[in-house]
Amino acid sequence: MAPHICEICHVSRAQILRPKNHARICASCFTVIFEAEAAETIISSKLFQPGERVAIGASGGKDSTVLASVLKTLNDRHDWKLDLVLLSIDEGITGYRDHSLEAVKRHAAQYDLPLKIVSYQELYGWSMDQVVAQVGKKGNCTYCGVFRRQALDRGAAMLGVGHVVTGHNADDVAETVLMNLLRGDLPRLSRATSIITSTPSAARGAEGSFTNVKRSKPLMYAYEKEIVLYAHHKKLDYFSTECIYSPEAFRGSARTLIKNLERIRPESILDVVRSGVDMAKLVPAADENRKGASEELNGGEKIQDEREEAEEGCGSGGGQDAGGEMAVMERKLQEDQKADEDGVEIEVKMPAKAHRDGSFERIRSPAKTTVPIRTKAEKTQGRKQGNNGTLRSTAQRLGQCERCGYLSSQAVCKACVLLDGLNKSRPRTGVEVGGGDG
Q: Could you tell me which residues belong to the region Disordered (predicted)?
C-alpha cells in the first residue's frame, strides 16, 4: 500500500495520524499546527501582558517540558517580551523528583532561563518521603497537593512573580470535570474548567507577599498524546517515570475512564471539557457571597479551593498516567523512529493480547481507587444540604492564615492543619509551622 501524503503540505509523507481529529500529516506540519494552536489559545484568552514576568511550573515531565519549549519559541517568534523563569518544587521523593530535577536543570541551561527550586523540606520541615513514612500511601496525595500549591505561590513570591503557568492538558481538565460529576459537585466545575484560575488584583497579601498568584493553563486544549508526539519530534529531553506515591490517588479512576472513552471516540476528551465549561455556566449562585468558583469575591479576590489542591497535586507534569499508557506510547515512537522509512503513519494504540480462537482483547491496566480521607469539618465546609434536599454552598469569607499568612477561608489554612498533625508525632525541629513568611 502506498504511503499517505500529508493533508496539509501535500508534499511530505504522512507520519502522524493525529489523535485529536485523525488527520494524516507529516511531523513538520504537526509541530507548526501544535504551536499555532497554543498561540491561538494564549492570544484568545489574553493570558499574558507584554513584558509580564511569568514562572513556568517545571517538573521535568513531558507536559511542563513541552510548555517551556512552546512558550520560549512563541515568545521569541511573536516578540511578546515575556520575562520567563522556571519554578520547580522538590517534594523530596528519592528516586523520582531528584532525577526529574536534573532534567529541569538541563532545560534551564538549554533555554537560557533562570531556575528556582523550592523544597518541601525548606518550607515545611517535611519531605514527602517522611510524610509517607508517617501517614502511609493512602491519602498522601492530599498532603502533597496542598503543600505543592502553597510551595508554587511561595516560590513565585521569592521570584517576584505574580503569574504561574502549569502544564495541565485537555486530559487533565477532562479528568477533573469527571471527578466533580462523579461527586455531584457541580459548583466546582467553574474553577476546574477556567483557563485562568485567579486574578492579578489578589496577588499581594497584607504584608506584600504573594498569597494568591494568577495561574493559567496554556495547554488546556492540547491532548496528552499530542504533547508526547510534539516532544518526540522536537527531540525534547524529559523525565517520564511515574511518581512512586501516586497510584492510590482517586484521579486514577477518572483517568482510566477518560482513556477508555478516547479509544472509542477521540473527540470525547474535548467534548467533556466543553461540556464542563457549559455546565459551569448553568450552575446557579449558591449565595450572595459565593457566585461559583470563577466569580470574584471581596473586591476581586477568590477563595482557594482546598479540595482542588489535594486533587490537583502534580497533575501529569511528572509523566504519570493510567497504567503507563504514555510510557507505552513513548516506546512505540522510539521503535517507529528506528523502523523502515517506508512505514505508514503513526497511530498510537494500547497493546492487545491474542486468544486461542484468533480474537483479540485490549489490555487495560486496572487502576487502584481510594476515596480521599476527609475530616468532618472538611465534609461540611464546602457543601451543606438544605431542608429541601438540594445542595448549597456555605458562605465563605476570604482572609489569611493567622499562622503563615497564606490566603485561606479559615483562620488556619489547610497546610498548617496538616502540619500540626505531622508535627505532633515528632519533636519540633525549629521550622515554623506553615513555612514562615515565604
A: 287-323
pTM of the model: 0.75
Report the chain's C-alpha Rg in angstroms: 22
Residue 143 scores a pLDDT above 80: yes
Bridge partners of 384, per DSSP, are 392
3-state class of 89 per DSSP?
strand
| Backbone dihedral angles phi then psi of residue 75, each to the nearest 5 degrees | -60, -40
Residues in the chain: 438
Alpha helices (H) along 112-223: 120-124, 128-135, 140-159, 170-182, 189-192
Nearest residue to 131 via CA among 89, 90, 91: 91
Let me know the angle formed at the C-alpha of 229 by 224 and 232, rounded to the nearest 5 degrees. Answer: 125
C-alpha cell at 376: 468532618
Residue 400 is placed in which grid cell?
Answer: 489569611
Q: Beta 383-385 vs 391-393: how paired, if at all?
A: antiparallel
**Is a pLDDT exceeding 50 seen at residue 304?**
no
pLDDT at site 397: 57
How is residue 379 written as a grid cell?
465534609
125 phi-psi bin (left φ>0, alpha ψ -120 to 50, beta other):
left
Give the residue among 60, 86, 64 at the shortest CA–CA distance from 241. 60
pLDDT tens digit sequence for 23-59: 999 999 999 999 999 999 999 999 999 999 999 999 9
List of long-range contacts for 333-340, beta carbons under 8 Å, 24+ apart: 333/228, 333/229, 333/232, 337/232
Nearest alpha-carbon partner for 143 in 415, 436, 426, 428: 415
CA angle 194, 225, 370 (to 5 degrees): 65
